[in-house]
Amino acid sequence: MNKYRKDVEYYLYNRNNIKTSLDKEERAWSTIIETVYSRYEQSELGKLLSMKYDEKMAEQEIFEKLHIEKTTFYVWRNRLINEITLQAAYMQLIKPF
Q1: How many domains does the chain have?
Q2: Residue 49 is assigned to a structural domain of this protein
Q3: Is 97 contained in some domain?
Q4: Most exposed: 18, 29, 65, 95, by fewest CB within 10 Å?
């Protein structure tokens, strides 16, 4: 499990608030998150991002709407979280060790 998942999810859930933040670090997180959203905008991963973090749908409802298994949901979610974590490490927002 990604030890930064809770931090990353905080920024995902608060995506709209950090877009307009005056805090430099929050704006950097916003840049990463908006890049990931735009990268996956027209895909199933983008739908998952929107349903989970913007619409705050229950996981079971997401499984049903996307017609995916529970394990697929977690694989996709982890992939997105890991991608954001790697970008945050690259931008030195987190220390990987």
Answers
A1: 1
A2: yes
A3: no
A4: 95
**8 A C-beta contact, residue 37 and residue 46:** yes
Give the single-character DSSP code of 67: T
Q: Domain span at residue 72? A: 5-90
- Whether residue 47 lies inside any domain: the answer is yes
pLDDT of amino acid 51: 97
pLDDT above 70: percentage of residues in the chain: 97
Distance between terminal CA atoms of the chain? 15
Residues 21-59 pLDDT 10s: 999 999 999 999 999 999 999 999 999 999 999 999 999
The residue to which tokens 């933040």 are assigned? 21
pLDDT of residue 97: 64
Buried/exposed 60-71: b ≥16 CB within 10 Å, e otherwise: eebbeebebeee
Give the CA distances from residue 40 to residues 35, 47, 48, 93, 95, in Å, rounded to whole numbers and listed in that order: 9, 8, 10, 22, 26
